[in-house]
Amino acid sequence: MPNRWMKSIKLLxxxxxxxxxxxxCGSPGIGExxxxxxxxxxxxGQTSRIYRAENKTVPEVAQELADQKxxxxxxxxxxxxxxxxxPDELYHVQQDQAKPSDTLIEVDTKEYVRENYDSSFLQGxxxxxxxDDLFDGHKKSYKGSYRGYSxxxxxxxxxxYHVPSEAEKKVAPxxxxxxxxxxxxxxxxKKKSDSSVGQDGNLFKKQDSSSSGSKGKITRSSDxxxxxxKSSSIFSKxxxxxxxxxxxxxxxxxxxxx
Length: 258
Known about the structure:
alpha+beta, DUF4247 domain-containing protein, elongated, single chain, two-stranded antiparallel sheet, 6-stranded antiparallel β-sheet, DUF4247
């Protein structure tokens, strides 16, 4: 009786586990994403993208971004502004002045920083050596007054921001913070070798028929009938459809041709 109960429980658990695994694969809801909210694009590679992190502080978001993508430099912890410096971009993590419970993530190209930002404002957050590299050692020649998207109405950039189009969203997808799971993209052209059930412990792989067992060989005998080889073939020996023959010299017993 206990064995029957165990078998019943296993039969109920297997479908539940499969459903959980399928729900976790390819689901865009796994992980937490910061949607693209606004874009400013000018010539000479000047691009700025704005993302929103709802109900999160500046230090929290800055740490999440640093954990996801290690920066070359990160500014000290601050409730209003934090900066993450990458080889080709500057992340300006800032409190939204219009909605203080939210944090804005501004991703600027170096060209945008050089042409728009107030270098004296950045000096309060970024090391002088990093700032010199960011401005190519010519901070004085750049006379921007910009201090970030949250104060763009006061310290205006040279260009204007707009709601991103579908094409711009494709070019710059949402920043995704990896949570307890990961986002997987299904491949359009899976190799057959990756599709075997149970192979390498993968539950979702189907076995490739070309790799299962040895291939049999079909030969034709002298009387014209097809005969399979004795090796482990996927084909069975064909049955003859010709009428039975009577064994000569016997008592009329009918035997079937083998």
